[in-house]
Amino acid sequence: MEMRPDEKILVQKLAANIRKYRAIKKLTQEQLAEAADSCQQHICMIEKGIVNPRIVTVSKIAEVFGVTVDELISDP
Fold first, then answer.
1. How confident is the model at residue 2, as a pLDDT?
2. What letter would DSSP give residue 75?
3. Alpha carbon of 24 to those of 20, 44, 65, 66: distances in Å?
4. What is the rounded CA–CA span in Å between residue 72 and residue 62?
5. Contact 1, 42 (CB under 8 A)
6. Which CATH class for the 5-65 domain?
7. Domain residue spans in the chain?
8. pLDDT in tens, the chain (76 residues)
9. Are the CB atoms for 52 and 11 separated by under 8 Å?
10. What is the pLDDT of residue 13?
11. Ramachandran class of 74: left when φ > 0, alpha when ψ lies in -120 to 50, beta otherwise
């Protein structure tokens, strides 16, 4: 199912912020995935903006980075 334009924008912001915070924390996708109880392939798809992740996943990723969900979906 294709994302609506507004969903796509939000997913792209999320993707950019995850890449940014992962670089700041010097984590690999695999390390982030393990810490967020996910898998590397899913983290990769999130960072590419291919999937719209569940809020639980976004929340776990935010926790790993020590930021809020709002910070993950704000303008990068």
1. 84
2. -
3. 6, 17, 9, 12
4. 7
5. no
6. mainly alpha
7. 5-65
8. 788 999 999 999 999 999 999 999 999 999 999 999 999 999 999 999 999 999 999 999 999 999 999 999 999 8
9. yes
10. 97
11. beta
Contact 67, 21 (CB under 8 A): yes
| Identity of residue 38 | S
Q: State both tokens at 12.
A: 């792209």
Can you read off the two tokens belonging to residue 16? 């950019």
Q: How far is Cα 74 from Cα 64, in angstroms, rounded to an integer?
A: 17
Residues 50 and 40: their CA atoms lie apart, in Å, by 14
**Are 73 and 13 within 8 A, CB to CB?**
yes
Share of the chain above pLDDT 70, in %: 100
DSSP per residue, 37-68: TS-HHHHHHHHTT-S---HHHHHHHHHHHT--
